[in-house]
Amino acid sequence: MADNKTKSTKPANKTPPKSPADPAKERAAKRLSYESNSSHEGAGAAELSALEEAFRKFAIHGDTRATGKEMHGKNWSKLCKDCHVIDGKNVTITDVDIVFSKIKGKSSRTITFDQFKEALQELSKKRFKDKSNEEAVQELHKLIEGKAPIISGVTKTISSPTVSRLTDTSKFTGSHKERFDPSGKGRGKAGREDLVDASGYVPGYKHAGTYDHKVQGSK
């Protein structure tokens, strides 16, 4: 009995087989792709360096909650002082405060990095009067790029009579005196423990060790 059902046949694969790839060419292509991506990433990182890096360091100074994206007026003034933007002649602390108030928003207490650059542009005209606007901005940027806040108020060692007395071994008494020799050098274990004297002499005898010399001298 004839089978009326048609048998399904798979379509022939007309795609030509791929030739085996060259491993050396594949490695070279991957290396070029990686170097290309790395160069783009490096270019993006360079945009955040120098001036913006300094901005962020000063922006977070003294504030653990700061993100580095905005800067308060106090830190702005410190940046201008530490980076010598303020020279006392062309630019003063008053000029710095006026520019900050002018650049920031009316209801804002901080400035962004873009506003920071605007403020520097304003100050550059006063700081470098003998240069063109572009050169003045560049010179002002050089004063700030790569800089960080100067930490002041480091505690210094103060000479005190009380401290001197506590560290002067010649004034020690009792068991503390026994721990140091006349030059102030520590005796080590001998100054901390009672060591047995097996020399045969009475402790503290000044002429210890002179017996042989006396006997030989009398002969």
Automatic annotation (TrEMBL):
- Residue numbers spanned by region Disordered: 1-45, 165-219
Gene3D superfamilies xrefs: EF-hand
Q: What are the GO MF terms of this UniProt record?
A: tubulin binding
Q: Which UniProt keywords apply?
A: Cytoplasm
Compositionally biased tracts (Basic and acidic residues): 23-33, 175-195, 209-219
Q: Where is this protein found?
A: Cytoplasm
Its predominant location is cytoplasm
Could you tell me which InterPro entries the record lists for this protein? EF-hand-dom_pair, TPP/p25
Listed GO biological process terms: microtubule bundle formation; microtubule polymerization; positive regulation of protein polymerization
Q: Which GO terms describe its cellular component?
A: cytoplasm; microtubule
Family in the record: Belongs to the TPPP family.
| Listed name of the protein | Tubulin polymerization promoting protein
What organism is the protein native to?
Pelusios castaneus (West African mud turtle)
